Amino acid sequence: MRAVFVTGFGGTEVLRVQETEAPRPGPGQVLIQVAATGVNFADILARQGRYHGGAQPPFIPGLDVAGTITAVGEGVTGLRVGQRVAAFPEGGSYAEQVVADPVLVYPLPDGVDWDTAAAFPTVGVTAYNVLALAGRLTPGETVVVHAAAGGVGTTAVQVARLLGAGRVVGTVGDDAKAGVVRELGADAVINYRREPVADRVLELTDGKGADVILDSVAGELFQQSLRCLAPFGRLVVFGQASGQPGTASSGDFYPRNQALVGYSTGSYRRLRPTALRPAAEKVLNWLAEGRLRLVVSRRYPLVEAAAAQRWIEQRHSTGKVLLVP
Ligand SMILES: NC(=O)c1ccc[n+]([C@@H]2O[C@H](COP(=O)([O-])OP(=O)(O)OC[C@H]3O[C@@H](n4cnc5c(N)ncnc54)[C@H](OP(=O)(O)O)[C@@H]3O)[C@@H](O)[C@H]2O)c1
């Protein structure tokens, strides 16, 4: 089969399409013929050697797939050949075939198309968990979603609404991206490269601040988030696309009953994989019912993975970018 390999840490030139032996499902695994795979920001970090717990080259990158089960290993129950599924596979997803552990395989309801299914695992599960699990969002609360035009961002804006948020504010790094976020139902959009985010959030909330802030950018935006977190607010950190960490002191949180909460779907996959299923099933139901729409802005052939990653890395992308074998 063909797969894309990271042949050394570096720029997109280290991505090479190579022939490699197709994986075989071992006991307790299924084999999936890939229909489409998502490109995630984490794939770029992994290629650069900056992903926490990332693999050493050569490796196949990629976190999630949608496809059809073509073989089941010994001892697998509840999944069958021919079934349409989405999954977090073992090893990378930039390949024509992958194997997966059934604990991280999600049968697709009728009506969920391949693009939606391939886009769903990382962004769907992450958007739901940062809001419901880490953010403990309750109905009526104000949510700020940073990088709101991105893959996780476009999903989180909608999931916040579905969970009953009272007000949803998106932030973006480019005015051209604001329209996408507004169309998805955000009440306000702030350009964090041009506007003082904390002042704008305080203005929009009559000085109270936001109850839940989703920060995957960090750096200066984290400092702004600290300044506009409401009393009893939860600041959820789950990435640092800016390349810079945010810094805080314990004294920033206790006087106002605030919480700083970290979240990683990757760590859940490794340490508590079964705990991802409730989020996955909830999101798949919303997708099947048409209540949630994953934004897929571009599809590239698998062999053009380098161009797909450049599109995201250069901050041109909105929503999800997919690769199709
Ligand atoms: N912890 C987890 O479980 C988890 C899971 C999935 C994703 N994540 C994190 O969540 C974030 C979003 O992931 P995604 O895959 O959906 O990507 P994405 O949001 O589609 O793309 C990343 C976005 O980050 C923003 N950004 C800010 N500073 C940047 C910089 N210096 N370089 C490049 N982009 C920058 C850009 O939006 P603007 O142009 O609007 O600034 C860019 O579009 C990433 O930080 C990712 O690592 C974490």
Give an overview of the whole structure.
The protein has 325 residues and is of the alpha/beta class. It folds into two domains: 2-121 and 273-324, Alpha-Beta Complex (Quinone Oxidoreductase, Chain A, domain 1), CATH 3.90.180.10; 138-263, 3-Layer(aba) Sandwich (Rossmann fold). 28% of the residues lie in helices and 26% in strands. Strands 3, 4, 5, 6, 7, 14 and 15 form a seven-stranded mixed β-sheet that branches. Helix 3 links the parallel strand 8 and strand 9 (167-172). Helix 2 packs across helix 8. The mean pLDDT is 97. Bound molecules: NADP nicotinamide-adenine-dinucleotide phosphate.
Specify the CATH architecture of the largest domain.
Answer: Alpha-Beta Complex
Class by SSE composition: alpha/beta
Helix count, DSSP H or I runs of 4 or more residues: 9
Count all strands and give the number. Answer: 15
Strand content: 25-35%
Task: Supply the number of structural domains.
Answer: 2
CATH fold-level topology of the largest domain:
Quinone Oxidoreductase, Chain A, domain 1
Question: What is the helix fraction of residues, given as a range?
Answer: 25-40%
Q: What low-confidence regions span 5 or more consecutive residues with pLDDT below 50?
A: none
| Helix and strand element order | EEEHEEEEHEHEHEHEHEEHHEHE
